[in-house]
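Quick check before the chapter quiz. The format below is the same one you will see on the exam, so make sure you can read both the input and the output lines.
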Amino acid sequence: MIHTQGLKSPYQKRQAEIISLIAHNAESRTLLEGSLWFHNDVRNNFYYASYLFAAAIDPDLPVEFDRERAKGTAERVLLEVLSLQNQQLGTKLYGHWPLGLHPVPQDAPLNELPVEIMGSLMAYFCKEYGAHFSVQLKTAFDHTLEHVYNSGFFRKPVVYYNHHEAKYTAAKLIFGTLFDDQDLREDGLNSLKTTLQYIKSNGMPEYGALPWFWHWVQAFTCALEITGDSDVELKDLLCEMLDYLWNERASFYLKGAWFGAHSRGWPHDIPGDGNVLHDYIQFGDFVLPKEMPRTEYAGFLFYEAPESARASALNRREPIEVKKLTHKIVPGASDFPKLHSYAYVTADYAAGGIWERVDEFDNEQLRWSFSLPVSGEDEANQLFFFHPGDYYYEGDPRHQSGHMEVLYHRNVIMALFPVSSEDQDNLVGVLPKGKWIMHDRSLFGQASGVYFAIYLSVPYELIQRNKYIEVAAKGLPGGVVVEAIRSAEAEEQGILGLEQFADVMKERSPEFNSSSTVKATYTSWVGNHKLICTAESETTSAEVDGEAVSFENYTV
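Here is the expected output.
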């Protein structure tokens, strides 16, 4: 429980801020039919009610509502959420909840997902706040947790090392502890060991997956809170897991942004990093946006990242390259493909992506992007281009086809699109809002203290979207080249504004070849490096200053 009296650490202050913001948001909402605030996701009702309850009982947390009335509302919502659990032993999805509740919550179909994270968080909420429950709420929670335990949803082996199995592992430890089930607890301990050993040796198969990475963090932090000091070996392993996770996060962190490739992402994370509450509490070096699309339990669960992780995340004065290797698990394959993730991060922007492409769940991946710090304005902070693929629809720039070859070198990204005559020939780009100058087949812009030079092999037009600018182009096969330059760096070379930057950079346009072989040749402004990317029907090559790109320095 976050005690606001005599707060000392910045983490506790930021958690108290989150609790207050979400509690006031919850208190101001009107209950829908069925005593719930949300029908889109049952979990949101539990999260918001948790925050409202926590704020209402904390006399040291300033609030602008009547505490008793708010506590009563929170209990009412919590009781309603608990009542939606299937408590009929022997039925399908026993111990589970529905996910979407519209139009009638009591008639909504059951779903496997909510209990995965919500079941464990309920156990934590009872442990921390149970002393303040009414008799009715305490009894309801006791019954609910017993049904979760008896459901055994977590009794599954570790196979894919994904976020589902991470939550199963944490739940084994949590419910094994709560119900004194030593066999279950031992299963959880073995699953934890197996998972930790695998990801430390092979990387996380779900690279940059949001919001699911935060489910890993919450699940294992929750397990640490509940199992406590009952087992020294378990505590050490949970701390080792959380240290690993926060080191992974820090590797791709820039002032609230998660740069580089994402195997999956939701609309609130692409093209703008919106799921930032855990980052805000841990690092606190950016302005908290007004929108909070994934509240979950960021305000309650906290594990301090290793000092080395915090130092690397918060100290970006000198540009560095991040080269990571991970193994993608493919069911039925005898050998898992190796994926090489590259990123280049400076104090003002980061660039990066993944060299190889594999199919991902629901094709929700982000292959590469330039990322700017989170501004707090609920706007896009990413810049990228792609050829639309499965599930793509206008206005949702997450679904990319496999027709893209790349070259990453520090502040430059080259992307080629060798589409065939049977494929659609359009190219989609995302730009953060800023100042942009349009030229024939090139764009020059400035956003958040960074200049961008963008060169296309095909004509384009701009479309104003709600939170970003879309580049709509047709005429593929072809390619795009993007170079980012810090404004301060440009000024050192005598460039004093966007127009002067555009005048200088338009003379450096790359050479494109879009016949049977798609090829781009470009000499970077920073470092004067000659970059060549070639995509043919069977082979792809990437060269920097006459040498083929090597993956020798990529490590897990």
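If your answer matched, good. The two ends are 36 Å apart (CA to CA).
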